[in-house]
Amino acid sequence: MKIIITDASTITSGDLSFDIFGKFGELVVYQLCNEEELKKRIKDADIVLCNKTPMTKEVLKCAEKLKYIGLFATGYNNVDLEYTAKRNIAVCNVPGYSTEAVAQHTFALILEILCKTSKYNETVKQGDWIKSRTFSYFPLPIFELSGKVLGIVGLGSIGKRVAQIAMAFGMKVIAFNRSKISFVGVEQVDFEYLLKNADIVSLHCPLNKDSDTLMNEDAFSKMKDSSILINTARGGLVDEIALRDALGSGKLLGAGLDVLKNEPMNKDCPLFNIDNCIITPHIAWAGLETRKRLLNMVAENLTKFLEGKPINVLNN
Q: Is the model's pTM score more than 0.90?
């Protein structure tokens, strides 16, 4: 049995080993594949393991032996599920592996905006504390989390974990979810109410036709003055031009983003180099422990499939 990993460089920079998959058969690891390379490389594959590699109908037509696609991800919009179902190719994802990491990163962004830790560190390195006449200086305004209202859009596993952390900080938590989900301490509200009442809006919902550019000019206009937007979900949830304008006008105090509409970032991205917009390069999921957990869960998915007891199948 031949197993192909198509985009290893999206999982590790050399700090993890894929040896765990060698026990299943002949393992071939590629760092990245363009479409033409991919068609050749998976031609005789029985198993493909990938993260974001496009598994389109045109690509999969070249893989006549293929019977399983294992995703190093929860999201699956890179796979043609309709075609794989017709071909009887099982597609399995890994739900929940990054909950702790993404919730942690959400608060890293929030705390950076409110506490300005890196900016104050920069002033110290520039010698401002040496020159200071007092023991403490604070020209950049900083704020407490306690007492603020966090509005969570999407109350799945990550949204719930973010809510728990927020409550530990003494925040009030409100949430909008398309279906009602009961969660202790969280008040369920409609989207407009959330926008109007939240000091911080944090996105944790999937990207689909209903949520595409959910945060647009109209949504930003309804948010509280000097509020904050956090997005660790999907870049397409946000109209980036509208966000740029809301940040530039002072409507929003700041934004913290781990995802953008186009990744890698385009050189003409409207949010590039905006002082009150913090952007990290889609790394909320990428903690070392998180990626180790991911590899083990992908291996478990494959084990269950080979035993005839598949789990986390997306295209039944």
A: yes
